[in-house]
Amino acid sequence: MTTLTIDDIRVEANEGMTVLEAANEAGIYIPTLCYHPSLSPYGGCRLCVVEIEKMRGFPTSCTTPAGDGMVIKTNTPQLQEFRQGILELILTEHPHVCLICDRKERCEPFDICLRSVTITERCVLCPKNGRCELQQVIDYIGIKELTLPYTYKELPIHREDPLLERDYNLCILCGRCVRVCQEVRGIGAIAFTYRGSQALVGTAFDRPLQESGCRFCGACLEVCPTGALMDKDDKWQPALDREAVIVPCQYSCPAQINVPLYVYLVGEGRYKEALAIIREKVPFPGVLGRVCIHPCEEACRRGKLNESISIKSLKRFVADRDTGEWKQFSKKLSPTDKKVAIVGSGPAGLTAGYYLAKLGHSVTVFEALSKPGGMMRVGIPDYRLPEDVLNAEIEVIKDAGVNIKLNTKIESIDLLFGQGYEAIFVALGAHGGMRLGVEGEDSPGVVDGATFLRNVSLGEKVKPGDRVAVIGGGNVAIDGARTALRLGARQVQIIYRRTRVEMPASPEEVEAALEEGIDIVFLTAPVSISKQKGQLSLTCNRMKLGEPDASGRRRPVPIKGSEFSMDFDAIISAIGQVPEIPSEFNLKTDRGNTLQVDSDTLATSRQGVWAGGDVVTGPASVIGAIAAGRKVAISIDKYLGGEGVIDEELTEERQIGMYVGMEEDFADKTQVKMPCLAVKQRTGNFDEVELGLDEQLAVAEGKRCFQCGIRLQILRAPLPPVGVRLQIPVVPLLPVGATT
Amino acid sequence: MSFNEIRNQAIAEWGALQQSEKPRILVGTATCGRAAGALDVLETINEELSRAGIEATVIQVGCIGLCYAEPLVEIIKPSRPCICYASVTPEIVSQLIEDYIVNDNPRPDLALGTIGEDSIDGIPKIFELPVFKSQVRISLRNCGHIDPADIKQYIANDGYHGLVKALGMTPEEVIEEVKKSGLRGRGGAGFPTGQKWEFCRRAPGKEKYLICNADEGDPGAFMDRALLESDPHAVLEGILIGAYAIGATQGYIYCRAEYPLAIERLERALSQMSECGLLGDNILGSGFSLQIQIKEGAGAFVCGEETALMASIEGKRGMPRSRPPFPAVSGLWGKPTNINNVETWANVSAILQKGAEWYASFGTETSKGTKTFALAGKIARTGLIEVPMGIPLGDIIYEVGGGIIGNKQFKSVLTGGPSGGCLPASMVTLPVDYENLAEAGSIVGSGGMLVADEDTCMVDMARFFLSFCQDESCGKCVPCRVGTRQMLIILERITQGKGQPGDVERLEQLAQLVKSTALCALGGTAPNPVLTTIRYFRDEYEAHIHEKRCPALVCNKLISYYILPDKCEGCGICLRNCPVEAISGGKRMVHIIDQDKCSKCGTCLDVCPDKFSAVVKVSGEKVEVPSEPIPVTPKKTKATDKP
Fold it and tell me: N or C, which terminus of chain A has less Cβ within 10 Å?
């Protein structure tokens, strides 16, 4: 421990601290623009100069190690004069007129400047106006006027990079970006270029960032004190939620899985830890790793450069290698003697049940069907989600103490309350097929998609025949068609009234269906169905696309006189599902027979009853249902007197490694390709089509990540005390002409 | 072969060479000699000798320091003193071979002087000439006398004797010896060398580095280059002694890539050292080991700053960092590092060879020994000199340097390179040492001395050197990068006649800010030329600002050329030579310069025949000239005879 005196205050400093750090620790602010707590000392801006007894000149506090017995002054008139002088020098190369304008308090962005100040000199047009460190330091130190000439550097603004903009006209050469890139990240994509007054930050030979070895992690953006480096998504106005800009993968995940961390851990070969991170938020990693609609991948920043990270595949990769080690960190609270009933054993119900059981509540899940899992069981065919994967994950939930009662259809909520359940979660899903609304749709051989898939999943003998038509363009339609193929159909046609662009099914599913030889007839809609001599005749209209409808997709319009007929053995209608809610539930419903809930708590119109998942949203996603289950678990626990804390840490790994190093062709690396079962081997069985990544592919994909998450690990630079302006000293500079 | 055997052999070979019956011809082929044509001379010598069938030994030596007299050739005939011939051309050297070697006529008309005991009538002794009389050659002791490519010639002249002596002492004793000598760093700052070594020796850590700073970047300075080209072993021996004293096992020589000959000589010297057991593991059987690596610098001035230099060796951009921590504690790769300049190392070998007391007998109380200076600018005898510390400035300018060329007035001398100070002619009595120069606002620096005559504008000179420092700023710290730029803007406007009242004060303020807050010595000393010119030549600044006049008639925007109507004879030479067609006139008509068109190139002044001298260059004054060409006034009949 070192003791020093700063501005007459006794300050203790740890070994290795600089004077500036010791001062900050003691709550003494010393102005600086180049110092950053996550970076090595630099001493470039010279604002943090101090006077130290027995030391020559004016050392910078950010580079001077704190020494025992040092007596330091941080705020003498001489130092203030220097700081004003240095700031004035910085401002001769940085747009600043608004900073020293006496109207600045009254001026709004985009106000017409009465002083005819050019755009290049105005702060109100800077993307970082109002949250700029330079502004804050100037406000603190105070600059009366600029007596030296200002030069706009007239450098071209780099707008070509997909994620960020670089405007070096705003750069003050504090070197933070260079240091974070070189020292902290070990990349060195940017460095100082040129020298003298031409000195600048840039890539080697001014090449585009993609060719510089840049990993687009955004660490440089995080430390830039001015508007020189900006996220494209964060210009002009700060995003309401920083994480939406910085880690959109995690932000877009309904369950808020820490995607950046687990993708990093996969890249490092730490699969157990990666799985633990996923498990902290969801109890179905294996299921999600196969069937998730992955909004994270849509949001992935890498997708703006070339192709997003295959996050879903990585999730499956680690889920398939579960060693159960995470369980030792998993909490199980003592029993509360509170009974919770959950209606439906789909992802929403089981997730809520799992967390509530861990919080000590007594949870019973009621399932109408003979097997648990809801749509995961009966909506998703085995070739996409093998039964044993689902079974294993449900087993973990049961182990947590969740009691699942199969073949038990609940018709009345009152009955449940009567049995002593204090809280009820309605998670029925949306299993009712929507009607086509055409003549003859009740003919034998016509079945709705949900029923068709359910029957197959529950092990009923289903034989659709040789020629099968599937009507619709969603994932159920694709699943129906591919299932029919596996059940022996020779010719399967999907009939869809719009074009491929508008299909709601996931593109990779559509691709797989086409690969397997399924024909998709676009711009065609059914008109009527008739049954003749054991054959179904489907009459259709050709369609064309008209004006966009409420969903934003162009509305299909029939072409007059284009009617034609086709013969099929079976017709599967898969144009959507609705929840089937027993009337005695007495819950308020909404459009599409969905349940009305409070969007924050998911509470229904009845006290003690919550609802979530497809029964609220209509047919949606597993991850959405899981997120709803988590929300309900929190709500119910609070309702039952708990604190509603379901989050837990299942691994001690909490940080993404900062040092990553240079990789020349990083920007060019494309997404890993999922190995699949050969098309020939897919018919006649329900073997899983996607084979999963091998270790080499998974690690490579993990390493392809930008690691945007490291931005959240970077410390914040010290800022001047808000609303404080230093007293401007009136001591003139000493005349120096006659001194040495 | 043991070192003693090598030494005996070297001495024997050297003796045999001195006693040789064959004539010896020494040609100075360092870079300075080559620039003056030494290689052509060398070729001619070889041709002439073989043509005439004369057996002679031709040796390429380094630079003796007489740049103004290059190429230099020394001829030694058996039992004759060595004669040094200056400004030798291939034609002259042919004559010399014919006249002196063949016909024994020493040609006193071409000779500069003799070297050695005996003398020759009509030729002065070279070391008694004013140029050498006040010089004391310690670091330059062998320059121009031995073959720098032959380690044995160095060994024969006491070479590596200092190392042998050092290895017989403890490292602490070696440091004590260097401390006793009073040697201070010759790179510019003048920090006591022994003390610096002691810091590094005492710094904890097994691995230590040693660096020779040969990144000589000052414009007009060439001491290090000449030394490395002419006597590399003097430097290398110093490095070995230093490494032994501080306990370093790895040495670096950071030499700018623009010195290819120096690098070539160093490489050759290093390989010869290895052959003699003077480099690598277990040097001379003492158990002391050292590897030396040459690092070529890319020519950034700032890389002469020690922390920037180390960053450059580490492969980083050459940018200085703040001290503390000092290199002695945390230098190259974070290890204790000692860094000294080329000249310092050459002094170290001399100190160990001849003893600290001998060395300390030169110089002043606080500045011991000698210092080399590179004399450049408007001085009669440009070149490399070595004088004892404390010598009056005037002795260097007038005695050694021979005064100003062309009988002009001595106005100022800039010592210490672009970040040094401009001292006025009135300071000729100033003793040249660290303290006195600092007090006068300048620095000793690495040893550049730029002499200015009366035709030099001091404001322009300050502007020139500041623009150099501004260009060479690494850009890291604000005061240096932006502060010097702002100072430059003010200086530029002053020299362009746009100076504003208060500019001098503004310059002083900025200079104070930059000096006080810049990160490294480059920024910290960059304002020196400005501050010293303001201090000693303030009236010139004021003339520029208030009278829009450049007293030295240098600043282009402030000068005008006029043709005096009463002197112009209408010959038309100026009109024909004016590159911008600014002159109008006609046969026997008084010519007139259109001031708006004139580019102020001065051609008219140069070409106007001396007998007329009709063109004048003025500043701040207007000469009455007619608005249109008028007939020339007949000179014999004065204006009164005009009709």
Answer: N
